[in-house]
Amino acid sequence: HIEVGSKWIIDSNVVIPKGQVLNIGPGTVIDMINGAGIIAYGGISFNGTNNDPINIISRDGTGIGLAVISSDRRSNVDYTNFKGLSQPDKSARSLSSPVVFYESDVDITNSIFENNSSEDALNIIRSNFFINKVIFRNSPSDAIDADYSTGHIKETSFFNIGNDSIDVSGSNILLENISINGALDKAISLGEKSVATGSEIYIKDSNLGISSKDLSSFR
Known about the structure:
Blueprint: E1 7-10, E2 14-16, E3 22-24, E4 29-32, E5 37-40, E6 44-47, E7 54-57, E8 65-69, E9 75-78, E10 80-83, E11 99-102, E12 106-109, E13 112-114, E14 120-125, E15 128-132, E16 135-139, E17 142-147, E18 150-161, E19 166-169, E20 172-183, E21 186-191, E22 195-204, E23 208-212, E24 217-218
Parallel strand pairs: 1-4, 2-5, 3-6, 4-7, 5-8, 6-9, 7-10, 8-11, 9-12, 10-13, 11-14, 12-15, 13-16, 14-17, 15-18, 16-18, 17-19, 18-20, 19-21, 20-22, 21-23, 22-24
């Protein structure tokens, strides 16, 4: 458990073992430097507030962020900002995003992913997820990459995305009240027999709107 409002500097990888949950309270700042990150096998519970969000940052631009792997507990991330993180080095872990949920269900709400230098801002693999009231801004590649997952994305906005805003493969997703402003490739990309249902989707200044391939469908 990390104390409310505390500030931590992480300069080497922190591993949360199976059966243990990483709890972080409002106003906490975690500064990841020297290529460090957090790998959690037992799940996470990040509980910021509107006035005192949690900030996961990297002042030297090398922090590799967070990976939750094979957790049997559903994680939650509320009022948490991920800013200035980088793509993990392949020698550290074979992942392409500074925030990864692999075979780990998660709810992400009221949070911001901003200025993260990585292939994907958020990568979800073989998991069930709910994303609500989240902002993705200034991602050099994809914002959300969901693979072989089932999820619901609601009231979420994307600004200045270098590739696809929402990229799903082999997944089933529901999209509600989505705003995409500036995707250099596709606003929404569906592949590998993905099924998506959407309503109130607003797309502006993007190269392509919605792309469906590999027997995928959108309705």
